[in-house]
Amino acid sequence: MSNGIRVARRRIVAAAPLLATGALALPRMVFAQNKQAIKFTLPWVAEGSTLFTYVAKAMGFWDKHGLDVDIARGSGSIAAAQALAERRFDFGLSTPSIAILQAIKGLPIVSLACCAYDATMGVCVMNDGPVKQPKDLEGRTIASVVSSGDHPFFAPFVEKTGIDPSKINRLQVDNKVRDRMLPEGKVDAITGFASSVMPGYVASGVKAHFMLYSAYGLVNYGTSLMTQPQRVVEEPDLCAAFTDGLLQGLKFALLDPAEAQKLFFKQVPEMAVLAQGREQARVGNGILTYTVARDIVRQNGLGYMAPEDYETMADMVMRYLAGPGAKRPDVSSLLTNRFIGALKLNEPEFAEAQKNAEEFRAYVT
User: What is the percent of the chain with per-residue pLDDT over 70, rounded to a whole number?
Assistant: First the structure.
């Protein structure tokens, strides 16, 4: 990269707060030249919980920084983290617990911003079913997907709630089979991610809700922006620019979900033609809003990551995911808030985000 391009990017990044507020307006043609191609991966398919990434692209939040971002769909948080560590992508979304596990394996990636403060792992039950609290799971049948990222965290949930696991009948099934079994009455509960299960349930009229593990003291962040440690050192301006663009998209989706969904469907038209696609996207974004409109954002700005939360997550990963003899990584090297703090929600905006999340609380409490 030439020195000229580096200087241009520094100026763009420095102007980002002014651009965001409209205090500084630069001609769009300035950014049409010398765009840098960026490869970015989602953890999964295009869906409501990640529609803010498409908003960032559609609204030109990356474009204003001179970034031409290609959004690739993923095949799971583990695969996304591995691809990032191997530098097949410049940036990507994954979950901190998986990133910590990657570091244990010698493939570290670093988190630049949190985009969801709850992974929404938990146990899903029917609203009119027999399970009203965790202890009610005893004597019941639960369906789980062993390969799902939530599976290892059922054990700490059991410990936290005092459930006797020997009194639970657990079935190992495929994820598509699992989702059908609960409304069909073949099981009393399923485990999984509310952000993945509930959009389909709500769209099809299934009356269910999740008991989130986080409600019982298990700290586990959801989707976070990540890259390689080397990139943070060598290309900090690029990291700042990409992070700003992504968080601008997130803020837009929090405050104007209806317009955000329109932008999403223009970029992912196949979702718009699905019978339940629009409702699934709406619910997915609504649950995401619920996980973001938290006091940590109100106090520190969008994307902020609490170092003590990462230490807690590392403890959990070491106990339930890491193999025997695994060495605990230096957690402080796995996150940085260096690019966080400029983009905040003022009090009216924070209130609006919480209002937009209210409808979706019933699905995760």
Answer: 91
Q: Residue 232's closest CA among 314, 335, 328? A: 335
Instruction: Point out the least confidently predicted range of 22-36, 177-191, 230-244, 329-343.
Output: 22-36
Q: Using the predicted structure, report yes or no on whether residue 364 has a pLDDT greater than 50.
A: yes
- For residue 290, give the nearest of 358, 347, 343, 352 by alpha carbon: 358
Listed residue (217, 208, 166, 167) closest to 190, CA to CA: 208
Residue 74, judged by CB atoms within 10 A of its CB (0-12, 13-18, 19+), counts as buried
Residue 166 pLDDT grade (very low, low, confident, very high; cuts 50, 70, 90): very high
Which CATH superfamily groups domain 121-216?
Periplasmic binding protein-like II (3.40.190.10)
DSSP string, 13-55: HHHHHHHHHTS----GGGGGSSPEEEEEE-SSSS-GGGHHHHH
Per-domain residue ranges for the chain?
3-118+221-363, 121-216
pLDDT, tens only, 297-324 = 999 999 999 999 999 999 999 998 888 8
Burial class (CB in 10 A: 0-12, 13-18, 19+), 270: exposed
- Fold match flag (3-118+221-363 vs 121-216): yes
Q: How many residues does the chain have?
A: 365
- CATH class belonging to 3-118+221-363: alpha beta
